[in-house]
Write a structure and sequence with these properties.
The protein is mostly helical and 168 residues long. The protein has helices at 4-32, 43-64, 70-93, 121-136, 142-167. The protein is elongated, with a radius of gyration of 17 Å. The relative contact order is 0.19.
Protein backbone atom coordinates (compact mmCIF):
# COMPACT_ATOMS: atom_id res chain seq x y z
CA UNK A 1 0.00 0.00 0.00
CA UNK A 2 1.26 3.46 -0.89
CA UNK A 3 1.82 5.75 2.09
CA UNK A 4 -0.09 8.94 2.84
CA UNK A 5 3.11 11.08 2.71
CA UNK A 6 4.05 9.71 -0.74
CA UNK A 7 0.57 10.44 -2.08
CA UNK A 8 0.74 13.89 -0.50
CA UNK A 9 4.09 14.53 -2.16
CA UNK A 10 2.66 13.71 -5.57
CA UNK A 11 -0.53 15.69 -4.97
CA UNK A 12 1.50 18.71 -3.85
CA UNK A 13 4.53 18.73 -6.13
CA UNK A 14 3.10 17.66 -9.51
CA UNK A 15 0.62 20.58 -9.63
CA UNK A 16 3.35 22.86 -8.25
CA UNK A 17 5.55 22.07 -11.27
CA UNK A 18 2.65 22.70 -13.65
CA UNK A 19 1.84 25.98 -11.89
CA UNK A 20 5.52 27.01 -12.17
CA UNK A 21 5.44 26.41 -15.93
CA UNK A 22 2.25 28.48 -16.30
CA UNK A 23 3.64 31.27 -14.12
CA UNK A 24 6.88 31.35 -16.10
CA UNK A 25 5.06 31.51 -19.43
CA UNK A 26 2.80 34.29 -18.14
CA UNK A 27 5.80 36.21 -16.78
CA UNK A 28 7.45 36.13 -20.22
CA UNK A 29 4.23 37.38 -21.80
CA UNK A 30 3.88 40.22 -19.27
CA UNK A 31 7.51 41.28 -19.66
CA UNK A 32 7.04 41.36 -23.44
CA UNK A 33 4.11 43.74 -22.80
CA UNK A 34 6.39 46.02 -20.75
CA UNK A 35 5.28 44.89 -17.29
CA UNK A 36 7.28 46.34 -14.43
CA UNK A 37 8.49 44.34 -11.43
CA UNK A 38 8.69 46.41 -8.25
CA UNK A 39 11.79 46.36 -6.13
CA UNK A 40 11.83 44.76 -2.70
CA UNK A 41 9.78 41.72 -3.61
CA UNK A 42 10.08 38.62 -1.45
CA UNK A 43 9.93 36.28 -4.45
CA UNK A 44 13.35 34.76 -3.74
CA UNK A 45 12.34 33.77 -0.23
CA UNK A 46 8.93 32.52 -1.40
CA UNK A 47 10.50 30.46 -4.17
CA UNK A 48 12.44 28.51 -1.53
CA UNK A 49 9.93 28.59 1.34
CA UNK A 50 6.84 27.39 -0.56
CA UNK A 51 8.14 23.95 -1.57
CA UNK A 52 10.15 23.68 1.66
CA UNK A 53 7.00 24.22 3.75
CA UNK A 54 5.32 21.27 2.10
CA UNK A 55 8.45 19.14 2.20
CA UNK A 56 8.94 19.49 5.96
CA UNK A 57 5.30 18.56 6.55
CA UNK A 58 5.64 15.53 4.29
CA UNK A 59 8.73 14.43 6.21
CA UNK A 60 6.88 14.87 9.51
CA UNK A 61 3.96 12.85 8.16
CA UNK A 62 6.37 10.13 7.13
CA UNK A 63 8.04 10.12 10.55
CA UNK A 64 4.61 9.89 12.17
CA UNK A 65 3.71 7.04 9.80
CA UNK A 66 0.38 8.69 9.08
CA UNK A 67 -2.39 6.31 8.10
CA UNK A 68 -5.68 7.26 6.45
CA UNK A 69 -8.12 8.63 9.02
CA UNK A 70 -10.69 11.41 9.38
CA UNK A 71 -7.99 14.07 9.76
CA UNK A 72 -6.34 12.93 6.52
CA UNK A 73 -9.70 13.16 4.76
CA UNK A 74 -10.42 16.61 6.27
CA UNK A 75 -7.00 17.83 5.16
CA UNK A 76 -7.57 16.49 1.66
CA UNK A 77 -10.91 18.29 1.45
CA UNK A 78 -9.36 21.59 2.61
CA UNK A 79 -6.50 21.14 0.13
CA UNK A 80 -8.90 20.36 -2.75
CA UNK A 81 -11.08 23.39 -1.96
CA UNK A 82 -7.95 25.54 -1.77
CA UNK A 83 -6.82 24.31 -5.19
CA UNK A 84 -10.27 25.05 -6.61
CA UNK A 85 -10.09 28.63 -5.31
CA UNK A 86 -6.52 29.00 -6.56
CA UNK A 87 -7.37 27.73 -10.04
CA UNK A 88 -10.40 30.03 -10.17
CA UNK A 89 -8.09 32.94 -9.35
CA UNK A 90 -5.56 31.77 -11.97
CA UNK A 91 -8.27 31.43 -14.62
CA UNK A 92 -9.63 34.86 -13.75
CA UNK A 93 -6.23 36.55 -13.97
CA UNK A 94 -5.23 34.70 -17.14
CA UNK A 95 -1.78 35.80 -18.29
CA UNK A 96 -1.57 38.26 -15.39
CA UNK A 97 -1.07 35.36 -12.94
CA UNK A 98 2.59 34.73 -12.15
CA UNK A 99 4.79 33.90 -9.19
CA UNK A 100 6.28 37.39 -9.50
CA UNK A 101 4.67 40.79 -9.12
CA UNK A 102 4.52 42.07 -12.70
CA UNK A 103 2.26 45.02 -13.50
CA UNK A 104 1.64 45.71 -17.18
CA UNK A 105 1.33 49.35 -18.25
CA UNK A 106 -2.21 50.70 -18.15
CA UNK A 107 -3.54 47.72 -16.22
CA UNK A 108 -6.40 47.98 -13.80
CA UNK A 109 -7.32 45.90 -10.78
CA UNK A 110 -9.29 42.75 -11.58
CA UNK A 111 -12.80 42.85 -10.06
CA UNK A 112 -14.36 39.64 -11.39
CA UNK A 113 -14.24 35.98 -10.40
CA UNK A 114 -13.11 35.50 -6.81
CA UNK A 115 -11.59 39.01 -6.93
CA UNK A 116 -15.15 40.34 -6.79
CA UNK A 117 -15.25 39.34 -3.11
CA UNK A 118 -11.62 38.85 -2.08
CA UNK A 119 -8.65 41.12 -2.73
CA UNK A 120 -6.11 38.27 -2.77
CA UNK A 121 -7.86 34.91 -3.23
CA UNK A 122 -4.68 33.21 -4.45
CA UNK A 123 -2.93 33.86 -1.13
CA UNK A 124 -5.94 32.67 0.84
CA UNK A 125 -5.85 29.52 -1.28
CA UNK A 126 -2.14 29.01 -0.61
CA UNK A 127 -2.68 29.37 3.15
CA UNK A 128 -5.46 26.79 2.89
CA UNK A 129 -3.26 24.44 0.83
CA UNK A 130 -0.69 24.56 3.59
CA UNK A 131 -3.35 24.10 6.28
CA UNK A 132 -4.88 21.15 4.45
CA UNK A 133 -1.45 19.55 4.17
CA UNK A 134 -0.82 20.17 7.89
CA UNK A 135 -4.04 18.34 8.73
CA UNK A 136 -3.66 15.49 6.25
CA UNK A 137 -0.12 14.73 7.38
CA UNK A 138 -0.70 15.31 11.10
CA UNK A 139 2.17 17.81 10.85
CA UNK A 140 1.50 19.38 14.23
CA UNK A 141 5.09 20.57 14.73
CA UNK A 142 6.28 21.68 11.29
CA UNK A 143 2.83 22.59 9.96
CA UNK A 144 2.05 25.61 12.15
CA UNK A 145 5.59 26.91 11.62
CA UNK A 146 5.27 26.45 7.84
CA UNK A 147 1.83 28.07 7.68
CA UNK A 148 2.85 31.01 9.88
CA UNK A 149 6.18 31.54 8.16
CA UNK A 150 4.79 31.45 4.65
CA UNK A 151 1.82 33.59 5.67
CA UNK A 152 4.28 36.27 6.81
CA UNK A 153 5.91 36.17 3.37
CA UNK A 154 2.49 36.41 1.71
CA UNK A 155 1.58 39.37 3.92
CA UNK A 156 4.76 41.14 2.76
CA UNK A 157 3.93 40.20 -0.83
CA UNK A 158 0.41 41.65 -0.51
CA UNK A 159 1.88 45.00 0.60
CA UNK A 160 4.21 44.98 -2.42
CA UNK A 161 1.36 44.11 -4.77
CA UNK A 162 -0.94 46.76 -3.32
CA UNK A 163 1.76 49.41 -3.72
CA UNK A 164 2.48 48.32 -7.28
CA UNK A 165 -1.21 48.24 -8.24
CA UNK A 166 -1.93 51.62 -6.69
CA UNK A 167 1.03 53.12 -8.56
CA UNK A 168 -0.43 51.88 -11.82
Amino acid sequence: MISVPIVAGLVVFVPMLIEAAIAGSNARTLRAQGAIEPTGDVFGAMQFAYPAAFLVMIVEGDLRQVQPDRLVVAGMVVFALAKALKYWAIATLGTRWTFRVLVPPGSTRIRRGPYRWLAHPNYIAVALELTGTLLALHAFVTGPIAVAGFSLLMWQRVRIEETALSAE
